[in-house]
Amino acid sequence: xxxxxTKSIFINGEWRPLEDGKQTDVVNPATLEKISEVSYxxxxxxxxxxxxxxxxxSTWSEMSGRERSKILYKSYELMxxxxxxxxxxxxxxxxxxxxxxxxxxxxxAQSLLWYAEEASRAYGEWIPSSVSSKRMLVIPSPVGVVGxxxxxxxxxxxxxxxLGPALAAGCTIVLKPATVTxxxxxxxxxxxxxxxxxxxxxNLVTGNSKEIGEAMLSSNVVRMIxxxxxxxxxxxxxxxxxxxxxxxxLELGGxxxxxxxxxxxxxxxxxxxxxxxxxxxxxxxxCANRLYVDASVAEEFAHILKTKVDALQVGSGLExxxxxxxxxxxxxxxxxxxxxxxxxxxxxxxxxxxxxxxGTLDGYFYEPTVLSDVTDDMVVMSEETFGPLIPIQTFxxxxxxxxxxxxxxxxxxxxxxxxxxxxxxxxSEQLDYGIIGVNDVTPSVAEAPFGGIKQSGxxxxxxxxxxxxxLEQKFISIGID
Length: 481
Ligand code: ADP
Description:
The chain is an alpha/beta fold and 481 residues long. The protein has 2 domains: 5-252 and 456-477, Aldehyde Dehydrogenase, Chain A, domain 1; 256-445, Aldehyde Dehydrogenase, Chain A, domain 2 (3-Layer(aba) Sandwich). The chain contains 14 helices and 23 strands. It has a 7-stranded mixed β-sheet with strand order 15-16-17-14-13-19-20, sandwiched between helices. A 6-stranded mixed β-sheet has the order 10-9-8-11-12-22, sandwiched between helices. Strands 1-5-4 form a 3-stranded mixed β-sheet. Helix 1 (43-62) crosses helix 7, helix 3 (83-94) crosses helix 4 and helix 4 runs parallel beside helix 5 (157-169). Bound molecules: adenosine-5'-diphosphate. Adenosine-5'-diphosphate (ADP) binds at residues 149-151, 176-179, 209-210, 213, 229-230, 233, 236.
């Protein structure tokens, strides 16, 4: 199914052959087996891709929204026709259970569908002038060439969430996917190619992150960088991008709290807390990182939670029944272990898990882990673990819960479980986060804005807000005297 060598550099409508000495291995994180070899490009390829995107810009941006829409819609159809195969590739290079991978591909296709629809709806404005001698209008125009840098945790949907709106707006693209998950990116680009995307509109460069990033940052042709990844790299891009005042959209780290109120449906709250915490083995930027439970229901909730956690199956994502696949690499596994050890050394108790999974596979697995008796000085309470670990604390009143939940440098997602509408609204309004899930832990959809505040970044993906990121509002003032 996956070829031993995969061409992964696509510039101006051509797949570059693999060059000796300029390739890198793709490894299955569940088995540590080599799956394929892909091209390892750098500054030169990135610069060529930028030139191609620049050349294609006038053609693409001058096409009508309706024409761009047709290609996006065709891409959506092609992706939906191929969900099973694409999901198997995704799981093989990234590790997540197949059911989650299928969910990701379907979600990725939804972004293409949504922005196929939005492509024809970039409306402008007519502004009533304060003087009778002028007419004023505002027209949305595409930002230009966009550099898209995407992560490995959602190697397909993070691409369509950026490229869908950018392409709908009329921008052309240089895409740099994460080094460890290039195969899913190649598949997305092949879909665009088959859908009839004109040459140079979407270009793909895999390889040296720093060099490709530098080429994007130093080029005055690349007008915007859209990035999902770590806060450190996001800050670096912002710093370096400031030389040219580059437009940036940054989806960075998070440290999501869950608040379980005393009137919550505890069964539902426990099930969804697990979904949030252990989805993609905890490697999701909106994963729950801290669980705050009303003290009056804490014991009952912890009991329900433990029973459910202990029933979770760890293993290869390709095996039926697996709930948690491997972590992406050894560093990720070491980080979870370090967070557990730090917490235990400061007095936390291990309710479930607490160690590397000792199964039959060589990959980077970690048991789903729950900690109690947690205090705020423990690293896990402030640093993103990006692994299958959740600490539980109790609270005695709503004010305390909100204060604790907001005590973070991050501001991406927060969750609250309550059966009372007024509690839901009151708490949601006070939570300092870009996305709030009320009795809902999967708030990432094509039709609504997704994005953080504080050190979780800026800009939105999804909904009409997501497309606005890729549009400049051009004001035209016409004297009619
Ligand atoms: P993670 O820790 O989740 O891998 P990163 O921020 O390191 O997050 O990676 C997210 C994306 O950013 C990946 O595509 C990665 O290759 C890319 N990246 C990492 N460092 C740089 C850099 N200096 N310049 C540009 N892109 C980078």
